[in-house]
Amino acid sequence: MSQASTAEDATALSTRRIAFMVAALVLAVISFQLNATMLGPAYYDIETELGKGSFAAMSTYFYLAGAVANVVLIRWSDYIGRKRVMIGILALLCVGTLLCVVGTTLPVVLVGRVMQGACNVTFGLAFLIMRERLSGAVFGVCCGVVTSVNGGVAGVDALLGGFMADRFGYRAIFLLILVIGALGIVFGWKAVPADDPDRTAAGRMDWVGAALIGLGVACLILFISSGGDRGWSSTMTLAFLVVCIVALVLLVVVEKRVATPLVDIDQMRSRLAWPLIVATILNMGSFMVVAGFIILKIAEDPDSGFGLDGTTTAIMFLTPSAIVQLITAPLIGRIAVRIGFVTVFRAGIVASIAVTSLLAVFADDKGMLVILMAVFGCTFMGMTLTAMSVLGVTQAPEANPGSLPGISNAAFGVGSSVGFAWAAPVVGTGTLSSFPTALWICAAIGVVTFGVSLILKQRPLETGPATVALRH
After folding, report:
1. Residue 12 confidence (pLDDT) above 70
2. Is the terminal CB of the chain with fewer CB neighbours within 10 Å at N or C?
3. Which class for 208: exposed (0-12), middle (13-18), buried (19 or more C-beta within 10 A)?
């Protein structure tokens, strides 16, 4: 895709069309994101009905599916078009959500969660569509708008999730998600520009590579999950590790020989790519676990925590951080276009380390945790997550736009699975010291993450001219 074509596409969209398109992309992202944010306050309701450990299992397979789908489907969209993949994956989300509504056993619900998790690709697709259609500050602000819902819809979703779980049970949440998913299909079909045949990549989709990397990523996540449950020396755990290693070795061999590889191995080895992938895994395995698991456990645990219900948990700990993120993320996106997304990424990591350390110090102080989680909404959800979400797109070469976003977005799922795998045993001990211990571990991982981010090299932003004359 050339700079000229980017500029032409950007000027072809009026301000009204841009707003309509971004609104549709946000709705598609929300369709996925509600599956993560709304279920948090329903933690104990899910565990009561589906059995102990069901929430962690649902989360593990949910993020596993997202990891595999990102690697395969975002790259596939280079060949068949972004819009087609987005509409198709939203349809799959609706089917999976319906299974979660009618399912009365954990295996059935897990199948539904796998289908829902695949919809994680809406984030990467949204950023790719905006990179192709928008430019300059407009691109930065709109990326911030999309990222701002990554932690929830201004906290209303978490609050509503707590209310619905307390009064109607967790299935009511899935019914709402089903409606939102159906609306996402309608709005996406109407508002997202049609796929341009001239944009599609030449050659064929590398399905052998897709199968190998999908198998490798899945077995990596299952290795981590199985190690936490069965022990790291168990036969099942070691089997997952062996299959993972074999699949990834074969992937390197295959990708070196095909004309249009799924993964550009040379690109992945550069400072433009691998530090981002590693830092993403570490961020999701530490800071995201703070907001998505540890704080929820502190709030709702009746023995060593505060023993709050789902609604109160959402009001005190989830809604404030989501509101802060909603306000700051568009501003962060605009700033990042000027000073660099890598710079913002590093600054967010440092600030998140500081806040997480304070959370560990004040883990038994309800008032301080409320304040600190609101700040966390800026440092991690607003700064780090905005930059991390966009970097997969901006660091990718223009000639091969879908490869790096797929891998970097898969790292979100791998990191989340890693986080649940290590945090569940630590927090699950139920002692007063388990919560600050888990938070200190998150801060320590954050220090390593910052070190990795220093290796990351910034690619000049290629989204068209800095200013665009839009037709009103």
Report:
1. no
2. C
3. middle
Same domain, 170 and 181: yes
Q: Are 426 and 418 in contact (CB under 8 A)?
A: no
- Domain count of the fold of the chain: 2
Domain check: are 238 and 301 in the same one? no
Q: Which residues contact 226 (CB under 8 A, 6 or more apart)?
A: 234, 236, 237, 240
> Which value, to the nearest 10 degrees, does the dihedral of the CA atoms of residues 161, 387, 71, 232 take?
-70
Q: Tell me: the pLDDT tens digits for 408-442?
A: 877 887 887 788 778 878 886 666 688 899 999 99
Return the half-sphere exposure (C-beta side, CA atoms, 13 A cut-off) of residue 51.
10
pTM for this model (two decimals): 0.78
Range(s) of the domain holding residue 361:
3-205+260-453
Q: What is the distance between the alpha carbons of residues 384 and 342, in angstroms, rounded to a whole number?
A: 10
Instruction: Say yes or no: 244 and 361 in one domain.
Output: no
Structure tokens at 324: 């802060």
Mean pLDDT of 456-471: 56
> Which sign does the torsion angle of CA 351, 355, 361, 367 carry?
positive
Question: Does residue 139 sit in the same domain as residue 172?
Answer: yes
Q: Residues 137-192: pLDDT tens digits?
A: 788 888 888 877 765 565 677 678 777 877 888 888 899 999 999 999 999 998 88
CA–CA distances in Å: residue 334 to residues 21, 128, 139, 195: 19, 17, 8, 27
At 371 the pLDDT is 94
- 132 and 199 in contact (C-beta within 8 Å)? yes
Asked if 67 and 114 touch (Cβ cutoff 8 Å), the reply is no
Q: What is the distance between the alpha carbons of residues 263 and 342, in angstroms, rounded to a whole number?
A: 22
Q: Which residue has the higher pLDDT, 80 or 166?
A: 80
Q: Which two tokens stand for residue 453?
A: 């981010």
For 117-145, what is the mean pLDDT? 85
Evaluate if residue 470 carries a pLDDT over 50: no
Q: Which residues are CB-neighbours of 179 under 8 A, at least 6 positions away?
A: none
Instruction: Map residue 129 onto helix, strand or coil.
Output: helix
467/210: higher pLDDT: 210
The domain boundary residue, chosen from 259, 293, 321? 259
Helix (H) or strand (E) holding 120: none
Residue type for position 87: I
| Exposed/middle/buried for residue 236 (C-beta within 10 Å: 0-12, 13-18, 19+) | middle
Alpha carbon distance 305, 298 (integer Å): 5
User: How large is the average pLDDT for residues 33-57?
Assistant: 79
Same structural domain, 134 and 123:
yes
CB hemisphere CA count around 45 (13 angstroms): 22
Residues 131, 67 share a domain: yes
Distance CA 244, CA 224 (A): 11
